[in-house]
Amino acid sequence: MKRLLSSLQLIPILAFASLLAGCKVGPDFKTPEGPATQTYLPQPSIKQTVATPAAGAAGKSQVFNYGEDIPAEWWRLFHSKVINSLVEQGLANSPNLAAAKATLRQAQETLRAQMGTSYYPAISANLAVQRQEFSNATFGDSGSTLFDLYNTSVSVAYPVDVFGLQRRQVESTAAQMDYQRFELQAAYISLTANIVTSAISIASLNAQLQATQALVKEEEQQLNIIKKQLNLGGVSGTNVLTQEAQVAQTRALLPPIEQSLAQAQHSLAVLVGQFPGNMQIPILDLNSLRLPTRIPVSIPSSLVQQRPDIRAAEAQLHTASAQVGVATANLYPQITLNAALGWSALSTADYFSNQNRNWNIGPQLVQPLFQGGSLRATRSASIAAYEASFAQYKQTVLQAFQNVADTLTALENDAKALQAQSAAETAARNTMRITEKQLALGGVSYLNLLTAQQQYQQARINRIKAEATRYADTAALFQALGGGWWNRGKIILPSPDLSR
User: Which stretches in the chain have pLDDT values below 50?
Assistant: First the structure.
């Protein structure tokens, strides 16, 4: 008995020694080298955008600070209590974020299960009690024999990972866990960015709706004036009909804006985890926002470490690399150490006596000899899958740099567009006021006023859209740079805004 126990105690020691002496076949994963570029744009880096003082907070110049870190709660740079509250609600209630968290926990437990079966022996106990009867005629006698049979055993099985099969499988599962971890970060960034841009869109549509309603009111007032002039014989009935048509056309612009506003509000409700019918969307005034004027921009070499989609693609590449190792290890012998100790008796009285004891111990080796080429084909398929994952990783990196380049360029052009739209609105408003005075004096026809009104209405809405675009593209840049998730729990103070 002692000799057997001593032998059983040696199994983990022998297995551990074999593990240390073993090797891992297949490629060892290495993080891909950083991108061979030092800039996001082909032209010199954008330093600062133009300013439009007439546009207020939305018209301030933005300075790009290359190499500065990004705060995790970047949306607070807009200084909007409404947006801050909406983001907090979304982070607390979003089903998509909850699903990503649960999927990560699933991956973590799967890794623990994989490590348990790969690194530790499997020990199982068996207890069986049987009542049996067989005929003595089997042995040349008459009659039958009825008896009870008691069996108890403890078995141990330990895979000796000589060629690294188990370790490669654990490596692959760990990489899958990393993938889910970065998918969670991507869901976090996408949620916060979508909430911010949806809130900005709602503020923009509210402003457009108010501008259009104000224009309808002005046109209705003008219609009343023309009707009075008609009664006095100063104008013809055609002028009244023309103005009525203009009022009707402007009113027709309201339903599409209201529909877009409703859809944006419904979308925002879902983003923060609420039913559209149960949520009162807070009123967000576009003029209450403050445009971030000091924009931190990560250096290109840091982007591959910050973007969750790049890190997730890297984790998938790691998984593919480990699977090549698994397929390679399957070509080699698989060794398992097995041992069992048990007792069998017809009664419990002398159940654990030495004469009723049985045991076995020994290694088991399985070497594939002929599988119809399936093992080598599987390895070749794993190599092809790795090559595909590597190509997908490179494509993800390229698209990430495109996102940053697009948003940097957009912010520069947004500032120019707002400057132009603000100037166009001022000119259109002045033209409309002058035309109104000229019409009152009889210096121009009514058609001139209609044209001036239409131009002003369109210029005002275009200016509002340009303001909202600056805010939205600023949020898009923070998202394109990775959203600052790595700084969660840290306080990153932006550079002071000396223009305030």
Answer: 1-8, 10-11, 13-17, 19-21, 492-500
Classified as helix, coil or strand, 66 is strand
Whole-Å CA distances, 415 to 411, 464, 469, 471: 6, 13, 9, 10
28: which DSSP letter?
A: P
Q: The whole model's pTM is what?
A: 0.84
- Averaged pLDDT of the chain: 86
The pLDDT score that the predictor gives to residue 60 is 94
DSSP assigned state of 73:
T
Rounded Cα distance between 53 and 66, Å, is: 25
At the top level of CATH, the class of 24-121+161-334+374-487 is mainly alpha
User: Burial, 363: exposed, middle or buried (Cβ in 10 Å; 0-12, 13-18, 19+)?
Assistant: middle
* 189 neighbors 483 (Cβ within 8 angstroms): yes
Beta partners for 63?
A: 48, 294
DSSP line for 231-255: HTTSS-HHHHHHHHHHHHHHHTTHH
Are β-strands 294-297 and 357-366 bridged in parallel, bridged antiparallel, or unpaired? unpaired
Contact between residue 86 and residue 195 where contact means Cβ atoms under 8 Å apart: yes
The DSSP string of 82-124 is HHHHHHHHHHHH-HHHHHHHHHHHHHHHHHHHHHHHHHS-EEE
**Alpha-carbon torsion, ordered 260, 262, 263, 264, to 10 deg:** 90
Domain ranges of the chain: 24-121+161-334+374-487
